[in-house]
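To the team - iron/sulfur cluster complex, inputs and output below.
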Amino acid sequence: MAEETRYITCVLCEASCGLEVKVDGPTVVSIRGHKQDPLSRGHICPKAIALQDIHTDPDRLRTPVRRVGAPGTDATWEPIGWDEAFDLVAERIVEVQAEHGADAVAAYLGNPNVHSLGALTHGVNLVRTIKSRNTFSATSVDQLPHHLNAMLLYGHQFLLPVPDIDRTQLLVLIGNNPMASNGSMMTVPDFPGRLRELKARGGRLVVLDPRRTETAKVADAHHFIRPGTDAYVLLAILNVLTSEGLTKPAEYVRGLAEVAAAVAPFTPERAETMSGMPAADIIALARQIAGAESAAVHGRMGVSTQEHGAICQWAVQCINALTGNLDRPGGTMFTTPAIDLIGKRMLGPGHLGAWSSRVRGLPEFGGELPVSVLAEEISTPGDGQIKALVCLAGNPVSSTPAGDDLGDALAGLDFMVAIDFYITETSRYADVILPPTGPLERDHYDLVFHLLAVRNTARWSSALFDKPKEARHDWEIAKELALRIITLREKRAFADAQGLSGLATATAATVKDLPKTIETQARFRSTPKQQVDLLLEALSTGLSVKKLAETPGGADLGPLERRLPERLYTEDKLVHLDQPLILDALTVLDATKTPATGTSDDLLLIGRRAQRDNNSWLHNVPRLTSGKPRHRLFINPADAADRAINDGDVVNLTSASGKVSIDCQVTDDVMPGVVCLPHGYGHGKADGIRLEHAKTLAGVSFNELSDPQRTEAITGNAILNGIPVGVSRAD
Ligand SMILES: Nc1nc2c(c(=O)[nH]1)N[C@H]1C(S)=C(S)[C@@H](COP(=O)(O)OP(=O)(O)OC[C@H]3O[C@@H](n4cnc5c(=O)[nH]c(N)nc54)[C@H](O)[C@@H]3O)O[C@H]1N2
Ligand SMILES: Nc1nc2c(c(=O)[nH]1)N[C@H]1C(S)=C(S)[C@@H](COP(=O)(O)OP(=O)(O)OC[C@H]3O[C@@H](n4cnc5c(=O)[nH]c(N)nc54)[C@H](O)[C@@H]3O)O[C@H]1N2
Ligand code: SF4
Ligand SMILES: [Mo]
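Output:
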């Protein structure tokens, strides 16, 4: 066969790079960055190469399987047909809901859903069909504080300003490491190249992080900051800005006086005591941000998934807005996506506390409860107890606090289905696993990441390979399940109305007479591709899937543009910084007099991402797992010496919720008082997962140490950074 060149989107991380792939029939010959791509400009990272390994991976499931035997090494997995699998899953979901109520079936949506067009167009509708208040997602171990503040300040949970990195003169990154992660809540492919350009035009990068990260190493300045104490530093920056008269907010920004009053107690000196960052440096940074021709402050994982995440993200928005950097070139700006899910009202503005979790009373946000309550909602008996779980592209046993306890809880469910193509720490508890097609077998359009990208572009990515005849896409799985669930429910209602008993007799009703079924069919009828086409057309962009598909790299719609105040969804088209929810929380913070460390013996545990890791999966891809071990605990030489720990020793790590043993690496890349461990490891412990080709199962799961009882006060977001841990040498 002849070699052919194709252009696709990499769906493995938020950077969403455009790739140039050479294929020969069913074989990938090479994968490169697409140089002419207007967004990613040729960028590629080692993970993209793994796309072909996922494609050919013998560990990957290609047919539905049913578990026989208890979860673990004794379990065997029996292949079953799609039809049988869909019926089985739909019946069990309908039965559980009929017996125990709608909320007895929970759903968890994992991270890859946002990277799958079909999961967004159809998977979300499946979750709506299940109609349970017990809906969870990776958002509450991630960016929930961003959504809260976007809703409060800009009137819509998805109205998230992104740093205009291509024009800024000062980029301040707090708690993120784009040199490894390739950026987050900021789709910024080719961060290294964009940073080089920033420096070439005389701009500066400043990083605040408890670890001298890959990004800190290429920054103009890096400040160590004690985990969990950023709020004090950010409030002190606001204190300097307001007390020195360095503010110049746009006329649509309100609340300066209230913010000034609220931050008055948070002096740089106090911030120094709490954070370890010298007061003089805090003052200098505040003045730099105010004085720069343009500046963009961006805070991510390290300041979202920590004790004061909501306050931190609010303070970041305030700094940008009060220095006049919100909505100006080189500051933080809103995108103008070709498909505007916000403008089309396909995404709601968000709400907080419309209901609460049954056991602990944590609030929902935007229709989801914090995943930190999932285990207790399964294991606490009573009305409203979760009895079944639908897990879509997620591995919460690895990814959420006390995941090991969640695993125990999953074992007690009446029923569980996983939509996943691997047998993982989580899916091994499922009764049925439904594997979707792989990333090279499906069409893609970034509904989410064009909304968060540093440049306005629109890119269609056609499936590189036809799917095998028997395979199903994520969207097809969602559609089948939703249809069968609705049909069964209607048949049941029909049988009840007729005084018939049981599902068998209910077959009297034919599908064509069932109104909800007909409605559902209509809702799920169009393919993801048709939906994208419709959305492009409906917005009269002049774009279509066909046009985009014919343009490698897609359409370049230009740099970010000024959008305010028109783009605001607040009723009065103003940005209100003086949010009572947050200002009240500051009072609580004010009462915290001691640094965030627990006992003086404890160190504070933080996370890290490596360029060749991808959350909880891809550890069975040999070319991503070769080289130096990446699973180790980093510890500062001073802390190691205090505990007679040497490089390479195995140490015991003990937190309020767990204990693990792990080999360590002594390095002054972490500040004293801090230890650092990646998440997504620990596969070796989970009996019966299928990663036969994993080169190494070394490492432990970080989330045996994180505590589901400790959550961010306003949103219930998980605290994954700044966890007090005891560290000692294992003898
Ligand atoms: N301690 C600690 N914990 C963390 C984090 C941290 O920094 N520290 N980070 C958190 C963050 S930011 C996130 S987003 C979460 C991520 O955690 P999860 O939401 O659990 O997501 P992943 O680990 O990416 O697992 C995804 C699963 O989806 C499957 N999958 C991959 N692609 C597809 C697909 O196209 N379709 C389907 N159906 N399945 C697919 C994979 O096989 C894998 O089993 O982890 C969180 N947990
Ligand atoms: N290679 C790779 N890329 C990824 C992923 C991956 O797993 N691997 N995951 C993807 C996902 S789901 C996400 S959400 C993004 C996340 O992207 P990033 O936000 O860049 O994620 P991290 O690399 O975890 O960076 C968090 C940083 O916060 C620091 N930190 C920890 N605690 C604190 C604190 O209290 N204060 C401050 N200031 N800093 C702190 C850590 O040292 C770390 O450097 O990455 C995405 N990209
Ligand atoms: S940076 Fe992300 S999107 Fe780009 S090639 Fe790597 S994994 Fe794919
Ligand atoms: Mo994430």
